[in-house]
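Quick illustration for those who missed Monday's session on complexes.
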Amino acid sequence: MSNRFHCVEDFRTESKNRLPRLMFDFIDGAAGNEYASYKNIETLDQIRLLPRVLVNVTHRNLKKRFLEREWGLPFGIAPMGMCDLAWPGTDKSLARASLQHNIPLCHSIAASSSLEDTYERARGNAWFQLYVGASLEKAFSHVKRAQDTGYEVLILTVDVPQVAQRIRDLRNGFKVPFRIGLSQFLDFAKHPNWVIETLIAGVPKTANYSEKNPADLDSAASNGFIRDETRGKVDWNFLQQLRERWMGKLIIKGVLAPQDAVRIKQAGADAIYISNHGGRQLGSAPPAVTRLPLIREALGNNFPLIFDSGIRNGEAIVKALAMGADFVMLGRPFLFASGAYKERGVMRLIELLTDEVSLTLAQLGCKSVEELEPNMIIEN
Ligand SMILES: Cc1cc2nc3c(=O)[nH]c(=O)nc-3n(C[C@H](O)[C@H](O)[C@H](O)COP(=O)(O)O)c2cc1C
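Prediction with flavin mononucleotide bound:
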């Protein structure tokens, strides 16, 4: 019953029971001692909102204009590689949820579905997210594929010059492609439902690097995707080339320094995506939300800003919007939801967050998410 789930933590607990530890820890884990990941959530929790009264808030509007479109809700689905590890079919569920609720779905280049399949499922709600690996040509060939498929929005992620050390993954022996030793075998044996459904669906692969494309086959074992290869080539020069080639909207993800944000704006990006990758990259990174007002101030009021990292409820979404974000994304909560209760979990999560955002607006005396402002945040 989906009404067992009343908050993100309920989904997290259930998915922890249902998933092999190898998979749950890959999703839930973070860089180093995981302090950045923990601090993202705690800092958002500590921010206080000032209730306002005697406003008629019977009707509340959660629709949000962003990048010249109207979205059904002010939040969407962050790019995540290999979502089908959370449960087989997760990518499909996310695409259906994105259509049903008219929210953006960021399709990772490391996704378990191909960019073509996701576009067919989520149509114009799908945005393509690019990592640049060792080969710039391969990166540009993915960009061309996305453009030819019909994608109108490209996200370039720049905060993974190299995948960080994630202690849980190292301890569990998480590798792509998977290596099944004794401890992984025992872990899988304790989670037969996940194993059976995964075997029926086919073990997830990074589908954008398919056998069909010989250019991607520089490592047969990994079907072309090399998780640990350098992504450090992405620089200002690459950004300039990308801006010249990509005709659609360009978003740069993983920005925390106002100086970088200013330069990215000058380079012609259409939006900046503030994120510390959910604490999965630099263990000592600041809580992402603390950067939001600084970057908003540096860029002025009208430059489009997206925020993620640590959002676990509707009040946190409202806080980020009030502090200057135009749009908010969530990562892990969607995978916990799918792991806990498959597609019904994903739909339930969106319903929960929608209700929480709406209730928070009522408490703040707002009729619309467009009315949220920094002065609704107060010192505690
Ligand atoms: C399992 C997993 C895979 C991810 N893969 C990607 C990816 O392929 N590309 C990317 O830009 N970010 C990736 N991220 C980071 C998310 O886009 C997002 O920044 C982060 O999850 C936000 O923090 P939250 O999980 O606290 O909401 C991934 C995150 C998780 C949890």
